[in-house]
Write a structure and sequence with these properties.
With 420 residues, the protein is mostly helical. The chain is built from 14 helices and no strands.
Length: 420
């Protein structure tokens, strides 16, 4: 089964005699001590049983490139200035290529993840939802490579991916280290369902010419935007999970059944994301002026591509800020992922799909993020294997550092900071 992780074997209990045939032999005929057997098994790479999950971060990088180049920059550069037609065409081709590569890789990885979820210990309802929703989304994405997807099919894949996201988030909330990413996934799924309801009401109001339905559409769109903004903020908080590995002797002893470290509400990485988003939003707001520079106008046009429809009853500055923050968080989640790298890729994919789940590639991104969260929630041994591997790497690098960088005083300060 893909979720089985190779960990160092535990010593047999005193009442059970070790198997002589299974233990390695020394050259002089004696058995190897248990410490040597543990060290040889501990050298195996962690997460060796999850090769598919190692591809999530590269896939998320492709999704980010496809979103920035194909969805934001390429349309924003059309008619922006005189003499940039070649650059705009090159960026359009690069975005199209990234989108095609992402579609091919995402389809293959989604099929592998569906098989892994079916063979996992996930609830039966979640397994059935993964098969039904995943197969439907993959078929529609394959259809979209040849011709335009009908509006009904686009709405159904958005609903299918959102329902699977809600189910995976509900199952993953029971795991402490999964709660920030699971909460963001659940909020994105709920926002997608509410937004698609608003689209249905908008079409219905347009057909009937009803002002009451138009007002209800604005209210539903505002609720969807509130859930979407909350999901982006939760994802920003998820960036505060501790990523650094401290030497083992600099940490206080942790009980065996202790919970993993919880993310901090405020961290340097989350503060950097908020500050950078504020600067981008300010430049985008200045891009609407007549005397705006080309960079400011480019920011404004690019962020306009991330605005949701129907339009919520929210100030435009807030909508631009949420769009900018989502892109920044996606980039930071890929550069500095949490201790389990697959969570960084899943966080990036669900934020890529947040504003338009009815688009085939976005629905596929949300589907893969939901499947990754479902697998990671059922793989607690894999999480702790990744954590221990990170700590071992940090300990070995600290032992090779100069004495001035690993003085006792510095370690005491490190341990006190970690305790606080």
């Amino acid at each position: 089964m893909l979720l089985n992780i190779d960990l160092p074997p535990e010593a047999p209990p005193p009442s059970v005699a070790p198997d002589a045939a299974a233990s390695p032999r020394r050259e002089d005929g004696g058995d190897a001590p248990p410490a040597e057997r543990r060290s040889s098994a501990a050298e195996r790479p962690p997460l060796a049983g999850l090769p598919v999950l190692r591809l999530i971060r590269p896939l998320a990088v492709l999704a980010l490139l496809a979103m920035i180049l194909g969805r934001m920059l390429a349309p924003a550069m059309v008619g922006l200035a005189v003499g940039i037609e070649r650059a705009a065409h090159a960026i359009e081709l690069a975005g199209a290529g990234a989108s095609q590569l992402f579609a091919i890789g995402a389809i293959v990885i989604a099929m592998a993840l569906i098989g892994a979820v079916v063979r996992s210990r996930a609830p039966y309802a979640l397994r059935i939802a993964a098969i039904v929703a995943g197969s439907f989304v993959i078929l529609v994405v394959l259809h979209a490579t040849a011709q335009r997807v009908p509006d009904l099919s686009a709405a159904l894949i958005g609903v299918s991916a959102a329902i699977l996201a809600l189910g995976s988030a509900w199952d993953a909330l029971r795991i402490p280290f999964m709660r920030p990413v699971a909460a963001a996934l659940g909020l994105v799924g709920a926002s997608a369902l509410v937004r698609l309801t608003g689209v249905f009401l908008a079409v219905w109001a347009n057909d009937r010419g009803s002002k009451a339905l138009a007002g209800a559409t604005s209210s539903v769109a505002t609720a969807a935007f509130a859930l979407d903004a909350l999901a982006v903020l939760v994802a920003t908080v998820a960036l505060g999970a501790r990523r650094e590995a401290r030497p083992r002797d600099a940490e206080p002893p942790r009980p065996r059944d202790a919970e993993p470290p919880r993310p901090r509400l405020v961290s340097p990485l989350s503060l950097a994301a908020l500050a950078l988003s504020l600067l981008v939003t300010r430049a985008a707001l200045a891009g609407a002026a007549d005397d705006a520079s080309m960079i400011e106008a480019l920011f404004r046009r690019a962020l306009d591509r991330l605005l949701t429809r129907p339009a919520p009853v929210v100030p435009l500055s807030m909508q631009l800020f949420v769009g900018a923050l989502s892109v920044v968080v996606v980039a930071l989640a890929l550069i500095a992922p949490p201790r389990l790298p697959v969570l960084g890729g899943a966080l990036a994919l669900l934020l890529v799909a947040r504003s338009a789940p009815e688009v085939p590639l976005n629905a596929l991104s949300l589907l893969i993020a939901a499947l990754c969260v479902a697998l990671a929630a059922r793989d607690e041994r894999g999480f702790w294997a990744a954590v221990l591997a990170t700590e071992r790497e940090g300990t070995s690098s600290a032992s090779r550092a100069p004495e001035s960088r690993t003085s006792p005083g510095a370690r005491q300060v490190d341990a006190s900071d970690d305790t606080r």
